[in-house]
Structures are given as structure tokens and as C-alpha cells.
Amino acid sequence: MRRTFLVLLTFCLWLPLVGADRDKSAPLEPSAFFIDEVWGKVGELSCLKCHNFSGEAKDSGFILQETILLEGAKLQSTHADNFKAFAKMARKRKAGQQSRLLLK
């Protein structure tokens, strides 16, 4: 649990540094950090269990897609979609509260 929290905290702190907290027309691309540390260690192992098209959290607005069997352009596209979902969720905050990702 502590490791999950640290990875998500690092991700939430890293996003503003790359400009994910600003609404820009140029899309952000998932980096090796996101793919290896956030997606590989937390997203795919924990979040994906419920946050998929048929999971318990399918109505949450935080929907992720499996990448385990994908290759090439489809894998890159799915990583980009998952990154966008994480970035969107990391931006959502109520005044005076921490990121919704960290609340989980």
C-alpha cells in the first residue's frame, strides 16, 4: 500500500512539471516513467481490476484499458489513452483537497 501511494504521489508531483496541469492543444505523451512505474506497478496491477469497461468502477469516468497482449501502434495508443485518464484524474481536485488519485 505504501509503495502504491509513493508511486501515485510521485506521478501527481511529476505531472505539473511536464505541463499536464495546463490545458494545452499539444497532447502529452506517456513517458517511460509513466509506463514503467505508474502503469506497470500500480495501474495494471491495481486500478485496472475495477476501472475497466466492465469492472465495478465502469461508471466512474476513470476507465483504463489492458495493455498486456498489445504490441506496436496499438500498445502505444492504449498507453496514451491510459496516460490521459491518469492525468485527467490527477488534475481533479476540490478546493483544499489533494488529488483524487492520492485519496484512493
From TrEMBL:
Name recorded for this polypeptide: Uncharacterized protein
